[in-house]
Give the backbone structure.
Amino acid sequence: IRHRKGLPVRGQSTKQNARTRKGPKRTVGGKRK
């Protein structure tokens, strides 16, 4: 179930450091001027 979203399966906190499952860091929102 959780694998589909690419989240950790055993309930690790995804807020902090879930970079291994989520992939490389992408800036959300982009740069706006």
